[in-house]
Design brief:
Blueprint lengths: L2 H11 L25 H14 L3 E6 L13 E7 L8 H11 L1 H5 L4 E7 L1 H6 L17
């Protein structure tokens, strides 16, 4: 599957809104990955894009930063910018995303970092996301 096809199919799925798929198209070794190889990542992308109609969406598999087997889908960061978040407190935004991804969280997803913003917050914040900290071994080491 080509990166262009993947980006176009996700964009079409989201009614033309811009969706960034950093790390969703290429795995750590910069080889092409398919939906079958990354089913959890693909499921997260589809659910968030379908239900929240985001203006910007990033689904980042951060599992490689942790002590898990190569190719794992256990640690994710999502950046969701949606008009649906206008006037909604941050805790409620997180609850919405957690509810949408309840099956993934009940399955193999161990950690989910959520950045949920309205379009105005995204513009004001400079459209930047800080990198996640390095893994501390799970016990705060």
């Amino acid at each position: 599957m080509s990166a262009v096809w993947r980006a176009l199919s996700i964009q079409a799925l989201n009614n033309g809104r811009c969706i960034s798929l950093r790390h969703a198209v290429f795995n750590r070794e910069s080889t092409m990955s398919t939906d079958q190889e990354k089913p959890t990542e693909s499921s997260i992308t589809v659910k968030l894009s379908t239900h929240l109609k985001p203006e910007h969406l990033e689904v980042v598999n951060e599992s490689f930063m942790h002590n898990v087997p190569r190719g794992s889908e256990t640690h994710f960061k999502v950046v969701v910018v949606s008009k649906d978040f206008e006037g909604i407190p941050l805790i409620k935004r997180h609850r919405i995303i957690n509810e949408l991804l309840r099956d993934e969280l009940a399955g193999g997803v161990h950690a989910l970092s959520i950045i949920a913003k309205s379009p105005s917050q995204w513009e004001t914040g400079g459209k930047a996301v800080e990198p996640s900290p390095a893994c501390r071994g799970g016990f705060g080491k």
